[in-house]
Amino acid sequence: MSTALPETVEKETGPTPEWSVIWLHGLGADGNDFVPIAPELLRPDWPVLRFVFPHAPVRPVTINGGMRMRAWYDIREMSLTNRADVVGVRESMATVNALITREGERGIPPERILLAGFSQGGAVTLAAAAIGLQVAGFIALSTYLPMVPDTPPAAASTKPPLFMAHGTFDPVVPIAAGQLGAQQMQAMGFDVDWRVYPMQHQVSAEEIADLSAWMDARFRQA
């Protein structure tokens, strides 16, 4: 059975996009959350991009007293070892695959797709990378790896590059969790560009500038 596509917000930087950036929001937000960030990343000589900002499904979240909100998976407790609902993570990874398939149908293959996510969305991004999803690169901001695959993904000649960033004062996802995730991804063979900023659970101007430079390198190497 195919996975239903979520509702999305889409922004294109011109006609006939050549690349796509699929960006997953954090807990309780929606696809509109990172729309204002897109223009701040852009450089004038980049290829035409399509930014795809999907909305997570509405579901009860345990740590918030069962309140229903947009979430890529349930968060059962604050402990990292039992925080993520693994079934929900896998469902969201299937949603990511469905979005990538649709981009292919619109003329943009996986090698010209970047998968990005913030917080809970970043956790889904890392989980998808860990099981061997092949795209042009991964972006995981203020997040952690929610599950380590039971068996390592099949070896590839090169793994997609990975940009990870975190705030030193993050009260939601402690920086130690982000560092552990970066170390785990490195152990799997990923080339992790790990950045730390003096901020909380947010995005900073310096971080956006560094991410723009990282994306620029991806486009130039294609």
UniProtKB/TrEMBL annotation:
UniProt GO MF annotations:
hydrolase activity
List the Pfam families hit by this protein, alphabetically: Abhydrolase_2
Q: Which InterPro entries match?
A: AB_hydrolase_fold, LYPA1-2/EST-like, PLipase/COase/thioEstase
Pinpoint the Phospholipase/carboxylesterase/thioesterase domain residues.
20-215
**What UniProt keywords are attached to this protein's entry?**
Hydrolase
Family statement drawn from the similarity comment of this UniProt entry: Belongs to the AB hydrolase superfamily. AB hydrolase 2 family.
Which protein are we looking at? Phospholipase/carboxylesterase
Q: Tell me what organism the protein belongs to.
A: Solilutibacter tolerans
